[in-house]
Amino acid sequence: MIGHAKKLGLLAALGLAFGLALAACSSSSKIENVEPNIFPAKYKDEIIATLTPVLSVPANFRDTYVSEPALTATPGSKDQRYTVCVRYNARDPNHRYMGITDRIGYFYGGHLNQLIEANKDQCGKAAYKPFPELGKLCLGTKCE
Questions:
Q1: pLDDT tens, 74-86?
Q2: Is the pTM here over 0.85, yes or no?
């Protein structure tokens, strides 16, 4: 019985220590209030940085376009966020172009946090402008 009481006391002490550690962490961390709708001034650079890791072959984008950032309603919410639409034709590993792809990029606090396939409702009426920087994107230093 004494052994059982010691185990309970040890568990209680560990629980208290764990609780104090969590409290210390939460009281010392600062939660920043970020303005969600800061204009994404470097949106093109962020799109390129996001798409670079998905390159499977050198120079695999053509017919590249992007819209200007615009405040739009977010799905399932009344909130608005800056979005851009990106259009390109990418090559597969066999160097065949796969057809036009439209993506929508969502920004939070001035930074791209999502770049997903878009449907016609999202980017069907986008005012695209040429995006030659994306078309010049290469895998490493080698372009074909």
A1: 878 889 999 999 9
A2: no
> What is the rounded distance in angstroms from the CA atom of residue 50 to the CA atom of residue 120?
22
| Structural domain boundaries in the chain | 1-31, 43-135
Whether the predicted pLDDT of 53 surpasses 90: no
Each as own residue / partner, the long-range contacts of residues 131-135 (CB below 8 Å, 24 or more positions apart, any chain) are 131/44, 131/64, 131/65, 131/66, 131/86, 131/88, 132/64, 133/44, 133/48, 133/64, 134/44, 134/47, 134/48, 134/51, 134/61, 134/64, 134/66, 134/86, 134/88, 135/61, 135/62, 135/63, 135/64, 135/88
From residue 28, how far is each of 14, 93, 105 by CA, in Å? 21, 49, 34
pLDDT of residue 85: 98
Mean pLDDT across the chain = 79
Distance (Å, whole) CA 74 – CA 63: 27
